[in-house]
Every structure is written in C-alpha cells, then in structure tokens.
Specification:
Layout: H1 13-19, H2 65-80, H3 87-118, H4 130-162, E1 165-167, H5 175-189, E2 196-198, E3 212-219, E4 226-232, E5 240-242, E6 255-259, H6 260-265, H7 268-271, E7 276-287, H8 301-312, E8 317-323, H9 328-338, E9 345-348, H10 358-361, H11 392-397, E10 401-405, H12 411-423, E11 427-434, H13 442-452, E12 456-461, H14 469-481, E13 485-487, E14 494-495, E15 498-506, E16 509-517, E17 529-536, H15 539-553, E18 564-567, H16 571-587, E19 592-598, H17 604-615, E20 619-624, E21 641-645, E22 651-652, E23 655-661, E24 667-671, H18 677-681, E25 683-690, H19 693-707, E26 713-716, E27 722-725, H20 737-754
Parallel strand pairs: 1-6, 8-9, 11-12, 12-13, 14-25, 17-22, 19-20, 20-21
Antiparallel strand pairs: 2-4, 3-4, 3-7, 5-6, 7-8, 10-17, 11-15, 15-16, 16-17, 18-25, 19-23, 21-26, 23-24, 24-25, 26-27
C-alpha cells in the first residue's frame, strides 16, 4: 500500500470532520432586510392581517435546501469518521456518502442547471439566485469530496490494513499475485474490454454516466505521435477483486483485494500492441439522469417512460472526477470534449468511486460490524407454537396493531398478512400500492398467486419511482401477465402512499382489513429502514381505503375521508389546521406542543405555520433525517423550536405528526408524506390517525426520546450550523436510540412469549 505522509490532526480536514462537533458546510446566510424592535422581535404589522400572531416573518427565515442536503451527507461522513462506529460500518458509510452524492448531482444539480439553461430558474426561498446556489453547492461539494477521499486514505484504509483487510496497489503485488492477476485478466477482464481510440477516424467516445474509465496516453513508436484512448471499466465485473491469501502465516486473517482498474492499467499493453503506453489516469463522469415525462401527452405512460429511460443515458455532464495526478493536457482534452466548466471538475486521490467499499463492508467479520440483530414477531402476532404461523387477520380483529420496523419483523407481519390473504379462500379482493419493491419479493408472488386463484387484485404501481423505473416496469408487466389489474396512478401525480386493503367475506358480510405504512413494501429494505405501520380492520379506515383505491383506479374525485389525510387534497390543509389549533391554544395560555418526525422539511407554508406556533408560545420539536429549511432558535421567531437529526445503523424513515394541547387528547398521525412541495402537492400520500391510547403513548415516547438531550443526535442552530451531540460532559457516549430500541423491543417480545 502506498505510504501516506504524516499530517498534523489540526491540519487534516478529514480528522476535523470526524472529531469536531461543528459542520464544515456553511451557507453564507443573508441578513433579514427588515429591522427589529428594541425587544429583538420583528416589528408588528396590522393586526387584521393575521388573527393569530400579528408578526411579519423575516425574509431570511428559510435555509437553502440544497446546502441542507449537503450538510445531511456530511453527517453521514462524520459517522464514517467516528471511531466508536465499527470499522466495516465506517467503510459502508463512506460508500453511502459516495452513492448519495452521485444521486444529488444526477438529480438536484442537473435539474438546477437545466432550469438555469431554459430560463425557468427563480430565486430560492433562502434568497439566493440560481447561480449563487450552484456556487454554494460547488464550494461545499469540493470540500466534502476531498474530505471523503482523504478520510479513506488516511484513516479507514490504514485501519482496515491493521485488521488484515487490504486493497493492494500494483507496487505491492508479489510475483504470485502478478501471475494470478495475469491469468484473471486474460480469462475474465480482457474479453469484455473495448478500447476506444481518438483520432481523425475515431471521434471522442461517449462516456456513460457514473462509469469509471481509464484515460490512456499512447505513443506510436514509428511516428512518435501522441494518441489518446479511453477504456471503460466493465460495470458488471466486481470493482474489488479478491486475491488469494498471502504467504504470511503469522496473520490470523488476511483478506487482500485489488481494484479492477489497477488490473486493467497493468495490462494495457495487451489492448494496444505495438504502441507505447506512456501514462494512464482514471476519470468518471456524472450526467443528468433526472426524468422528464409529459404524462398528459402520453397515450401509454409505460411506453413513454421506457423511451425516457433510453434518453437518460445521454444526459449532459454535470460533474467530472479525475485522478489528482492527471496531466493538464489530458485534463484539457476531457474538459473540452465533455464540455464541462472548471468548477465542475473534482481532482481526487485514487481510487475514485468509493461505492466499491460495499464489497469490504460485506465481509464476514462480525467483530468489525454492528452486533447481530434479528427482528422478531410483534407480540400480538407471535404464534402460540413456535412451528406455527400466526393468523394475522385474527389478531387484527382483536384491535389495531402498531408495527415498528425493523424492530418488529416485516416478514411475519406485513408479508404474512398479504400471503395469508392470497391463500385465504374467503378473501375476495386485494388492493395494493407499490412504490419500490424487489422483483423477487414474496409480496409480488402473493399478488400473482391471488390473481391466478380468481381473486380481484389491483396493484397501483408507481413506475416513476426514481432510479427504480426499469425494475418497476419489469415486475409491473409480470403482474399484468398473471391477471393482476395494474394501474399507474393518476396523471400528474406520483403514488407514494403505502397502502394495502384486503376484502374478506365473513358470515355473509364484507370485512375490510388494511395496512397503512410509512415505508415501502420491500422486505429487503425493511431490515435496514426504520418505519412504522398500522394493521387494522377499523371500519372507517377500510372505507377510506376503498374510496382512495377507487380514486386511483377509476373516477372518484370528490371522495371524503374520515381517519385519513390524503394528498394532494387534505394532507397540507389538515396539518395546517392542526398546527393552527396548537397555536391558538398557546395564545390562550394553554400548554401546547407540536412534534414532527420526517425525512425532509422544506415546505414554506408548513414552516411558517411552525414559526407562528413558536411565536405564540408553543413548543415545536422537529426530528428530521435529511433536509431542513427551518431556522430554529432565532429570537422573536423560533426560540421555542428545536431541530434534531439522528443517523445510525438504521435509516430513519418514518413520518409522525403529534399535536399536544393541555386538557385534550393527543392527535397523532403516521404516514408516507414528507413536508416537501412534491409530497404535499404533486403526490398521492396518505396519513392515518392513530386512535389506540397505548399506541399514542408509544409514539409520543418515541418522539420524546428522539428529541432528548441525552440522545446522541445532531442539533441545528439558527446560523445554519449543525452541531453533533454524541458525548456527555465527561466524554462518555450519549444514548444510541436505535441500540436502545433493539434492546427494548427484544425484552418486550420475551415478556410477551412468557405470557
């Protein structure tokens, strides 16, 4: 392994990110354009403009959403740098950071550039012009990507080597290694390579998005002329290839890997016989891969989307990553031919594209990973006999069941519910929304089995789920061939709601059973995502879902709902009404509290309502995983607002809304909607009200624990700075909420079995 120069920790940004509580990513915030009164509060406006809080809100009250997202990804990077996190999980977080940033450039940056080019971009809610936002993104992304690369080189890579996991560079290959890799190259790599030269007869080749490439400089010995060639790293071959064990018998564990681009680089003479290989460098291009489908003009959405997926591969470049030692003349060629600006070029130490670290994170080294965790059945669904399967619908008849994944098993609850419905001769119909799932999902198999047995099966498939479009098209057609009624939602709206409705004949009457969740019907991600779900046979929920599915599959535009809030019609208005009620209660002198747990909080109208609740004296708690455009802790505006973020072993994904007023019952909703314009206005989303007092208490306790100062989390400040709180005053780790929940739910299940 190449040696790295020693560096003082105070000068190492990677060390600073790992050790410091403060974020490196800072937005140059703009001061409010109105003065404040002597008391620090914003000057009042005419009372008749607002019957609740007679305050004009400041112009600088919103943080920029793009910078907030970059700050979220920096929090992922801080976990990679945390020595308290198991080593292979730290490597995983580096891979997650890389994957996240790829998607950010493909979608957010590309979309912003497209709007600027077409003249459609407008000043953001944070007050920045579109070009200023791009500049802020470029500055922050350059800093973060350099920290990311250096953290791997200076911290994670040496730590992996210390425990016998090495990525071996060509300079450290033994003779035995070279013999093995030479054979591997000839048999597995060489046959799938396509070297592309650049000369008058060969134009500069198209560089596909996210592909890793070798830029090769060649010399013709006869003419001494210099030539350029590009060799693409085959995406279907492993990025990191395992080497046979080394000869050091003293090592208990020795896992050695080589990067496939290093293997290719060492064998370039096979690709260009008769030419002198002078130098080679790796590079990578990110392209615009956001989709634009004009649904109103498309007779068949499926066909239109397939055409757009083909176009996606040829989107314009938005980022060029190159090896930091690349010669300027090669760089100039790439910049010119790819038509990228200088600020879109990112010089980084090799290896590029650290998504490949997932290979190392998957190694079977239990001592270097999170402690083993196996989800167990919910107590209400635990079978009496270990070998038997619980009757899910019978359990639902005894009362609502609140599920908390991954702590409660997804397979013994949601999957079992759908499987049993498919096999039950008394079940007449199954209706299901599918946003993201896996092609080998037992849920897909159950829907097919139900349709083939004569049941009425409806699948509302969202084939526009970003980056899952091709998979969704494949299994949507599989469902259609089996006789499932497949619809693609409503024109102009993505169907993001997580719903399942089962209709069963019981004693001559129709009984409805329902599941409403916050996460996708994907058994694989259900083991990694934190989500909530409600299993219920409540009559009102069943009627609500019947109306909603009729709306999705047919014509029912004026449907009204009882326990559901449904976007785009009633989620926004319903939540605003409840926030307003909290605000009014606070103005009346009552203790009032508002708690929101979401992935993203961007919508200005919701944020302004929260500001007014705070100004009225209500406590406002925001638990957000990713983007947050709210500015908490500002005197006269949001001093009663706290914003927290929790990242860890599981991806916090549930959405919960709690409204607490002194002397009244708490109102709690769970569902699929984040607080973003697209969720509230351009998607079909569903929130269900929780009515069981025990479930309301459970969710309230969860929100309180997430917001507690004793829980490890990040705190957002009014100056747009995220600060990590993970150690107490004595330097001891604060409570890991997810680890506590693993232990708590395990104890609960053991007690349930004893009963």
């Amino acid at each position: 392994m190449d040696s790295e120069p020693t560096i003082d920790a105070a000068e190492d940004p990677a060390t600073q990110t790992a050790a410091s509580d403060a974020s490196l990513v800072r937005l140059q915030t703009r001061a409010a354009q109105r003065s404040r009164g002597d008391n620090g509060r914003f000057i009042r406006v005419a009372p008749e403009l607002d019957e609740t809080v007679h305050e004009e809100l400041p112009d600088d009250r919103f943080l920029d959403r793009e910078i907030s997202w970059l700050q979220f990804n920096e929090r992922v990077l801080q976990l990679a740098g945390d020595p308290l996190v198991p080593l292979l999980e730290r490597a995983r977080f580096l891979a997650i950071f890389a994957s996240n940033l790829d998607e950010f450039f493909m979608v957010r940056v590309a979309g912003l550039k497209r709007r600027i080019a077409t003249g459609l971009a407008v000043r953001s809610a944070s007050g920045l012009e579109p070009r200023e936002v791009l500049d802020e993104i470029s500055n922050a992304a350059h800093e973060l990507m350099n920290v990311h690369a250096k953290m791997f080189q200076r911290h994670i890579r040496p730590a992996l080597a210390d425990v016998g996991i090495r990525i071996v560079r060509p300079g450290d290959w033994t003779d035995a290694d070279r013999a093995y890799l030479n054979k591997l190259f000839r048999n597995q790599v060489y046959p799938v390579l396509t070297p592309l030269a650049v000369d008058p007869a060969h134009p500069f080749p198209y560089i596909s998005g996210l592909s890793l490439n070798l830029a090769v400089v060649l010399i013709n010995p006869k003419t001494t002329r210099e030539h350029f060639a590009r060799v693409k790293v085959p995406p279907l071959l492993p990025r990191l290839m395992a080497l046979p064990p080394g000869e050091d018998e003293d090592k208990l564990y020795d896992a050695r890997f080589v990067a496939i681009e290093d293997v290719m680089a060492e064998h370039l003479q096979y690709l260009f016989p008769g030419m002198e290989v002078r130098e080679h460098f790796t590079f990578r291009v990110t392209r615009n891969e956001d989709l634009e489908v004009e649904e109103d003009d498309a007779e068949n959405l499926l066909t239109a989307l397939e055409k757009e997926l083909t176009r996606r591969r040829f989107g314009p470049p938005v980022r060029l990553e190159v090896a930091d030692e690349m010669d300027d003349h090669v760089m100039d060629l790439l910049v010119r031919e790819l038509n990228v600006r200088d600020d879109e070029v990112y010089r980084l130490p090799e290896p590029l594209d650290l998504r490949g670290l997932n290979t190392l994170a998957d190694l079977d080294r239990s001592e270097l990973r999170w402690p083993p965790f196996l989800a167990k059945p919910h107590p209400d669904l635990a079978p009496v006999e270990r070998s038997a399967q619980s009757d899910v619908m019978a359990a639902m008849r005894s009362g609502d069941i609140l599920l908390h994944h991954p702590y409660d098993s997804f397979s013994t609850s949601v999957v079992a519910f759908i499987e049993q419905a498919a096999n039950d001769p008394h079940v007449l119909a199954i209706k299901q929304t599918l946003y993201r799932t896996s092609g080998d999902s037992p849920i897909i198999d159950s829907l097919i089995e139900a349709a083939e047995s004569g049941k009425q099966v409806l699948a509302v498939v969202e084939i526009k789920a970003r980056f899952d479009e091709e998979n969704n098209i494949t299994w949507a057609r599989k469902l259609e061939r089996a006789g499932v009624h497949v619809v693609y939602g409503m024109v102009g709206l993505k169907t993001h709601a997580k719903l399942c409705l089962v209709v069963r004949e019981e004693n001559g009457e129709m009984q409805r059973y329902a599941h409403v969740g916050t996460g996708n019907y994907n058994p694989k991600t259900a083991r990694l995502y934190e989500d909530l779900g409600l299993l219920t046979c409540d009559r009102e929920v069943g009627e609500d879902l019947s109306r909603l599915f009729n709306q999705l599959s047919g014509m029912a535009p004026r449907s009204k709902f009882k326990r559901l809030l449904v976007a785009p019609r009633s989620v926004r208005t319903g939540l605003l009404e409840k926030i307003q009620r909290v605000t009014e209660a606070a103005l009346d002198g009552k203790q009032a509290r508002l708690q929101i747990k979401v992935n993203s909080l961007v919508d200005e109208e919701i944020i302004d309502a929260c500001y007014r609740a705070s100004m009225a004296g209500a406590d406002v708690d925001i638990w957000v995983r990713g983007i947050c455009s709210m500015r908490p802790g500002v005197e006269g505006l949001s001093e009663n607002i706290r914003v927290r973020s929790i990242l860890g072993r599981f991806l916090e994904h549930s959405r919960v809304f709690r409204f607490v007023i002194e002397g009244e019952d708490d109102i709690v909703y769970i569902g699929s909607a984040d607080m973003m314009h697209r969720n509230l206005d351009r998607r079909v989303e569903a929130l269900v009200r929780i009515t069981d007092p025990k479930h309301i208490e459970t969710l309230g306790a969860l929100l309180d624990e997430g917001m507690s100062d004793d829980t490890s989390s990040w705190h957002l400040h009014g100056d747009a700075r995220w600060e990590r709180h993970h150690l107490d005053a004595e330097g001891n780790p604060l409570r890991d909420l997810q680890a506590d929940l693993v232990a708590t739910y395990a104890k609960r299940k053991r007690k349930a079995r004893r009963r």
